[in-house]
Amino acid sequence: MRRCPKCNQQFTDEWLTFCTQDGTTLVDDLSPADPPPTLVRPMPPSVSPTEQPTLDMPGRQGPPPAQYIPPSPLQSGWTAPPPPAYPINPQQSLAVTSLVLGVASVTLGLCCYFGILTAPVALVLGIVSLVQIKNDPKKYGGKGMAIGGIVTSSLYFGILLLIILFYGLGFILSAVR
Question: Which residues are registered as beta bridge partners of 91?
């Protein structure tokens, strides 16, 4: 059934779109013949609001519910922000290796000449690490460990030199007598 919003005349012909009296566009008459039933008593409080019955019955006339249509990415000007930048820890592997080998050359190397192998490697790795840190400080780190590796390997060479000098001096003095 349709009605004229201006003169409130009702038309039963579905094919009419304009009022025959004043030419106004007809609208669908949505007023139901019977009012919806009311609740006799409220629901007990143990029932959640989502489980309570509604008045949306199959025979009820009314506009269909609007369906949600998500906006397309081209319609909105908003774009997702980039992911956060994670801090990158500098590489310290050469510096750590230099320090470990330098300490090993001083401790183990003095008792069994194991430092003859580890001290030069620690010295070279410490120098290479310092050069890398100087060229790219954001990518490479561990300057203190590199310096510690150079110092301990140099300390090994200094102690080894003193041992050789004292041993040679003792050898020379024992031969003179």
Answer: 140
